[in-house]
Structures are given as structure tokens and as C-alpha cells.
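Hi there,

I know you've been waiting on this one. I reran it after we fixed the sequence typo, so this is the corrected version. Both the input and the resulting structure follow.
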Amino acid sequence: MTKKFKGYKLMTPKFRVSFPKLFKAEEYGGSEPKYSVNMMFPPDTDLKELKTKAKKAAKEFFKGKVKKSYFEYTWRKGSEIEAEWIEGFEDWTFIRAKSTYKPGIVDEDLEEIIDPSEAYPGRWARATISLFSYDKAGSKGVGVFLENIQLLDHDDRFDGRSSASSDFSDDDENDLDDDDDDMLE
């Protein structure tokens, strides 16, 4: 039997967006398609409220028993992730939030964002999330439900992709001089 717990809604501190699936739900491992984002919090981020409410959700749902394993799927340190791209982010905190419903997406001026290219890996954001506990099919834990996301400051992309405007800028760096004619022979 599945137990249900309403959870706690809160706004996150600023984070860097990673693996955004905000405009189209994606299936993962045969599960129902979901919208999601991995939230990357720098080491100096105050996550006290988030941690307190996550523990409280676990205590209330599991009758006072809180185990580290309840958080291992959605909440990790970069040092616990085995991937080449993690270099430089070992001390960061990674929290995965997801939803079967499309989250609301706005910019700093609270204008709706409809262009998926605006939600790129590496951009700064904050989100409203709900923390909830679950006990389903032998799996127990504290999950993070993605409600809404506000895209904030632009920053370097994690995926290395350049923008069209930078590719076609008036930068003389890639122009051939008359002296470079022998390169084409």
C-alpha cells in the first residue's frame, strides 16, 4: 500500500541548472514521463531550511525514523557522483526535482518563458519545490516535487554549446586575410 504525505513547499536558494527537462517530459528507466531539473548548489549556499524540512517530512512520515538512505536518490554531494564532468563541483550539493506536471517557468521579471533554449545547463535559477516522503513498492525516501522555476542570471553553459549570435559575431578572429591565400591551395 502506498502511504501519502502532503509535504512542505518552499523556495530554494539560487542554483545552477543541470540536465533541464522543463519543456518536455522524458521517460527514464521505464517510468512515467516526468519534467525535471538537477539543482546544483554552490558549497557556500545556506541549505538549512531545505535540510530541516526534508528531515521533518521524513520524521513525520516514517514515525521518527530518519535514515540517510531516504535521501540518496535525490540529494547528493558532487563527490558522490562518478562522472568526468563533475570535476570542480565535488563540494557542491545536487538535488533532483521532478514532476509529472509541467512546471511554470518565468524570468527575473516574472515573464513566462516559452523558449526552451533559455533553460540551458549552467544558467542560474531558483525554484519552488515540495518535499514529500514516500513508501512505494519497497522503496522509501524523501522526494522533491518541482512546482515552478525562475530562470535568473546567465552563465557559462555546461554543455559547451555556443550561441548563434556568438558564432556569427563580427569577430575578426576567424576571418582570412589576403596573406592566407596559400592555405586554400
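Quick highlight: The helical segments are 48-61, 164-167.

Best,
R. S.
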